[in-house]
# Entry
Amino acid sequence: MTPPNPKLKNRLGESLSGSHIIWEALVREGVEVCFGYPGGAIMPAYDAMIEYPIHHVLTRHEQGASHMADGYARASGQVGVCIATSGPGATNLVTGIATAMLDSIPMVCITGQVPSPLIGSDAFQETDITGCTIPVTKHNYLVTKPEQIAPTIREAFYIARSGRPGPVVVDITKDAQQQSCVFEWNDDEIVLPGYRPDYAPLAEQLEDAVDLIKHAKRPIIFSGHGIIKAQATEALTKFVEKTNIPVACTLLGLGGFPASHPRNLGMMGMHGETWVNKAIQDADLIIAVGMRFDDRVTGNLKTYAQNAKKIHIELDPAEINKNVHADVPIVGDAREVLEELLPQVDKCDRPEWLAYIDESKGDSAVRDIKNLPDLGKLYAAHVIHDLYRFTDGKALVVTDVGQHQMWEAQYYKHDYPRKLITSGGLGTMGFALPAGIGAKFAEPGESVWVICGDGGFQMTQAELSTCAQEGIKVNVAIINNGFLGMVRQWQEFFFGGRYVATPLLSPDFVKIAEAHALTGIRVEKRSEVEAAVRKAEATKGTVVIDFRVEQEDAVYPMVPAGATLGDMIERPHKPGNQEHNPIFETGEDE
Amino acid sequence: MTETVKRTFAVFVEDKPGVLNRVASLFRRRSFNIDSLNVGATHEAGVSRMTIVCEANEDKAKRIEANLYKMVNVLWVDDITHKQSINRVLALIKVNCNREQRDEILKICDVFRARAIDMSPDRVTIEITGPQDKVEGLVSVLRPFGILELVQTGTVAMTRGVEQHDLAHPTVPASRTSAA
# Structure
């Protein structure tokens, strides 16, 4: 049941235009903020918006609007809403929609469409956006009559937020916005005969899982995004504390299980910790919760965790056996399943397995750049580790995609869910700034730090202007290495060091900030990091910090794409092996 | 890994605009290759039935089923590959046929329980319904006469028993109930 909104006049039973009904429906679905960009086919809706208690954020590009709605949804757990016109407005949303789809983010996108008599005529600004977005939405609708608007928007929110969440597009023709009908709002439970969002775990599958757990000597738990979505942190923690099974996190699962918990091993996968990947390869049981065995997590599937039986706990049945065979599939909500398993599993200490993993950490600490001297240079990993220290690990961090994203995952330790927002599945550069703005609207009390590279920042830097116009504060840390760093790293490792199209000339980011009447800070030495972070935190408006970091540093460890998970390229550290180590190179230069 | 065989799915969908596009898009996107797809009305208002034939092993079949179930407009999916079922295609075959060849071709039609439905001095059009292999058999026998045109439907299929397709209370995907 939708709680009555005290700010909303009761207009049930009145004749309203489709435009008004759009906002009646959105407000009834709890929407307070929406992100968008007006244009011809959505103008009637914009005209009616002014009568409703909705804050509209004018973005500088529709892609920004879809990422903001996404960031809003990730930070709050609520459905994010964006709105755009037909044609280019709608197609500009698509990157953001695909980003939300791959990361299962609840989002409703309202788009205008040319008047229904013109559909199919290649009218001005006509695009078949429902056709375009079939593969990148959970569901979509074309609405051509005002009577359909309220029930469709209701359905769209229900589909977006229920089950495995995802984006839903509602394309509304201009004539449907302009025509009127009697406004009705049905508060009954939505029944969609073909839609099954919720599965309860089956008893026999739980029994099979308990049996595998009981006999496992070297079990490991995977904590994925599903833990955060299902608010299963507490349930997982109880389960771990009873069974003493160590936990590895996916990128999107970071924060779902506290980083500081003694059983938390850290991140798995391509840039995961060496001992985590080794533990996975050595495990005899994997209990994967709310994750989907992405190729960046598994490496070569043929050699992946061959000794381990797999229990796959996942809400979406289509993920079962997609990439990795599940010996025991459990389809259900992560929290519900963990809570049902908890009383059935035995208490266990497993000192040998835990000691074995501890031992395999080996010389990792020596190779960890965090523990290496900076020799007067500014390393991205040091910047992020310092940022973690000076924000007390409490910031809501929104990252872009690339090297800085991996360094963030490695060096900013998240103890709470929904404190890391990152484009994991689609890997969308340009995501961070708009998603950070969206997150700030969702959680105005949080200290939001946008971490991005010089490449990604320039993809959507126009949204700084949105920050200025909205008077909203985010702190932007640009990890500026003058390269498209991750591509450069691959070129260094796998393409013979030929840096094709990766050196990047950037504008003066401090001046860019100042051109928006915002604060810009340049940091070139590690000794300046703390002051810059503290100044950014203390400044009222948005602050852009241009961290001029070492240009040719690489993210370690690394499992090359398609290689066996255990085969990791580690940061060279031995004195005789300096040629690939930027730390020693730059040290010698001095 | 079980072997790849031709699979037949009976898929009940809501009769709404774009549903065929959604289903076809799903198969394309997931690289599930469709051999044939047939769609038509059922005895229930608002419900269409698709028969989809594609090659898949057991694992892939379950993923196809689970992915179909994820679609909001899909009501029921039944993998009838290993169920007792009736599978039919309909083909129209236009063949070169002069006066001397007529008797022979009509006899062939009798053997295959096909029917000549149109005839002119130099050609005949034959209609056949049956399982795919029977149609292929007829085509191969007719080929030496010179086939002028051939059109055929995709497979439509129905199980022999009485399936309780309670569309208000659909089943759950097979991937949920068993480890493949």
